Request: fold
Amino acid sequence: MSEWIDFDRWKECPQLERPGYVFEVRNAEGQSLFTTCDISLKLPSGWTSAPVRFRLVEAPKPRHSSPIPRSRP
Reply:
């Protein structure tokens, strides 16, 4: 993991991108999201404050989901 970077520098994210890594973006309340570099970052509707920092982290490993249950007759 890299050090936290002030969100004012988010426009620099294309130069920081690396294969197998994503960005963790965090707001003032400690909520975070994992995202690729997208200058016009879309924030989750539940966020009540703007992002304050970000860092480059290893991309989470893919997980298999549970099978969809069969419908009832």
